[in-house]
Design goal:
By secondary structure, the chain is of the alpha/beta class. The protein has 17 helices and 11 strands. Strands 7-6-5-8-9-11-10 form a 7-stranded mixed sheet. A 4-stranded mixed sheet has the order 2-1-3-4. The longest helix has 19 residues.
Amino acid sequence: MADAALRLQTLFEQLLGAPLPVRIRAWDGSQSGPPGAPTLVVRNRRALRRLLFKPGELGLARAWVAGDLDVEGDLYTALDLMAGLIWERGEDARTLVEALRDPEVRAAVRGLLRLAGPPLPPAPPPEEARRVRGHLHTKRSDRRAISHHYDVGNDFYELVLGPSMVYSCAYWPSPPADGGTLEDAQRDKLELVSRKLGLTPGQRLLDVGCGWGSMAVHAAREHGVHVVGVTLSHEQAAYARKRVADEGLTDRVEIRVQDYRDVADGPYDAISSIGMAEHVGAERYLEYATDLHKLLKPGGRLLNHQIARRPQRDESAYNVDEFIDAYVFPDGELAPVGTTVTQLERAGFEVRDVESIREHYALTLRRWVANLEAGWDAAAGRLVSAGRARVWRLYMAASALSFERNRIGVNQVLAVKTPDSGASGLPLRARTWN
């Protein structure tokens, strides 16, 4: 009798202590759960072994990346339903240990063990990053982490990001449904950063974590500044250098494969750090801020564009997301925006403006997901592995929902290396950035 789906639903509901909001279809063809809801497809018994040997998010991630688990129906709805169940229950949710005290749950787990087949843990998918103990953020470990995420093929990133090749939150004048394009919104973001930095012809700009060169090219072409862009990704640097050459800007833009900690040719008039500080790590953040402060001339400005998480009651209990750490951004860490502001101030900066653009990132991510889904046949298997494409689809869709639900945010922090005279060089009225 085909009943694996019902048995799975029963176990999950016992573990969660609440009705399962999605439908389940198991490898034996059985289905169970609310009609009309998105369907979690358990393709094989190996998915169960992944969950049993690594309960929690990492086991689910491995099953998803390997193709053992899938979703039929709207992915956003499925993720929102599951995330909503977990977040709404919060600290009152039953833990696995508590659930296993229940004889019925223990019996269900024993049944799943029988369903799962031979008790051997499947090997992790090859897309999983090699794990190291702790988040040391040495130069070597940072190079390895950046390579894992960014050196996966520029053609793949072109498909996902579109012609702008900007891998950070765009700045939308209105929702995309009103006719705004991703390319226009990314150009507006680069221009917003340029205006906040007060860029004028002849100035020197350091672009930390320059990516594929979009900010460097924009600043040099539109504002006449001289730019040094640094990245740890060789593939990004090669792509950025070609863009610079194609734009005829080699006399004004230099792209380096270099750690920001090794930049020693200041002072700069301005520094942009867009979507890079998430890689720095809590233990290194003050060092990062201090290094950038030293590289600026008196009166120079820093624009730090960074994802933030919500603060916790006990900050020492913060743990890096297992899926993101293993498959997306190894060693990446998020901090509350207040912590970021404090560290910048400790380094000597005067923080002059903090602008939240959280909703803008949700719009951006949904457009990236749409680009990936539209080019799925080209992406999965030709540009990158099918597993890698599945990683990107899941993490971008889940991140879009996290921004929409205010579980994470993104902020532009404008800081100044204000001289002893106190003359910041900023306008009296905030957000008139010239």
